[in-house]
């Protein structure tokens, strides 16, 4: 099996510090910028990260370990961040995410999962059987995917300002 | 004019800390992963960031301020990072980038550019007339574009490991 817990944990542990270095005290115009329409700002992404810590990754891991394929995961609300972040500051969200992520990774390590555990199976509401390895890989890739989304969203604020250089910046055309 | 120096400087100043929080002591398999073929690793991106600080952004700004449209910018070598980073560690590259970026932003602030300066014009070797505002916006967007590239590259290491979740992770299909 390709999956290695010791490889994904360093990524999971770093995400709060990456977000902190990037967003804390950054001017609001960057934090609140979207790509238009229903697209998400960095602020929305932060709320989404927190929601994942509360209801998605570790809760689903525990469902697999306790119930296997017998209990379908609760569906994940991909819009809950709007309730989580309402009336709160970026600093508060950064702090909450850092605390929840550190605790969740601590809990994950404390489970002391063994190689056979990573092949244990649960049931996803949309696509059926999934494994512990797939869940933990997705947790990690999901972090990276949202970092990418935030970078793209912030870059596009400058779409007009870069003038002819847009041609050399693939991020502007995504 | 949309461009605001006070808006882009906080982004430029944060990039070294973002990279540091993300990459320092991260296992090598993440730092060296590419998307295959000639695509760049996070390590290659770091060398590219350093090369930009040495030869691209501030040197081009000085060419505009000193020579205007009379002197075409030196072409930018988008592959110089392979020479810069050869035989060096990630930690060394992070340190060098942080030092160079801090110095360049300090120099930029010391220039005390006034609103009229942002409209001053230089000449790009490929697409002709560009302005100071466009150059400084591109410096900033270029940072964000490479953060996005690094996140995508690292996420794709997990392309197979996430199993059916790939469908919910747009980053896997870019």
Q: Which word captures the global form of chain A?
A: elongated
Biggest sheet strand line-up of chain A: 1-2
DSSP strand count of chain A: 2
Largest sheet of chain A: 2 strands, antiparallel
Could you name the ranges of chain A where pLDDT drops below 50 across 5 or more consecutive residues? Answer: none
Largest interface: A-B, 53 and 53 residues
Would you tell me the structural class of the helices and strands of chain A? mainly alpha
N-to-C SSE string of chain A, H for helix and E for strand: HHHHHEEH
Number of helical regions of chain A: 6
Distance between the termini of chain A: 33 Å
Assembly state = homodimer
Helix content range of chain A: 55-70%
Q: What's the overall average pLDDT of chain A, rounded?
A: 95
Task: Please explain how this structure is put together.
The structure is a homodimer of 174-residue chains. By secondary structure, chain A is mainly α. The first copy, chain A, contains six helices and two strands; from the N terminus they run αααααββα. A two-stranded antiparallel ribbon of chain A has the order 1-2. Chains A and B meet through helix 1, strand 2 and helix 6 of A and helix 1, strand 2 and helix 7 of B.
């Amino acid at each position: 099996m390709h999956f290695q817990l010791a490889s994904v944990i360093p990524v999971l542990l770093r995400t709060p510090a990456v977000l902190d270095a990037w967003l804390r005290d950054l001017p609001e115009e960057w934090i609140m910028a979207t790509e238009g329409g229903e697209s998400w700002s960095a602020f929305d992404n932060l709320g989404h990260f927190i929601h994942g810590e509360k209801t998605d990754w570790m809760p689903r891991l525990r469902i697999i370990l306790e119930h296997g394929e017998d209990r379908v995961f609760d569906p994940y609300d991909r819009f809950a961040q709007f309730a989580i972040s309402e009336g709160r500051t970026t600093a508060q969200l950064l702090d909450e995410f850092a605390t929840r992520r550190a605790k969740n990774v601590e809990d994950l390590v404390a489970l002391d999962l063994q190689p056979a555990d990573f092949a244990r199976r649960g049931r996803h509401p949309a696509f059926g059987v999934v494994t512990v390895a797939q869940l933990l890989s997705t947790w990690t890739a999901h972090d990276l995917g949202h970092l990418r989304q935030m970078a793209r969203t912030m870059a596009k604020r400058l779409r007009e300002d870069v003038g002819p250089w847009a041609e050399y910046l693939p991020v502007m055309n995504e």
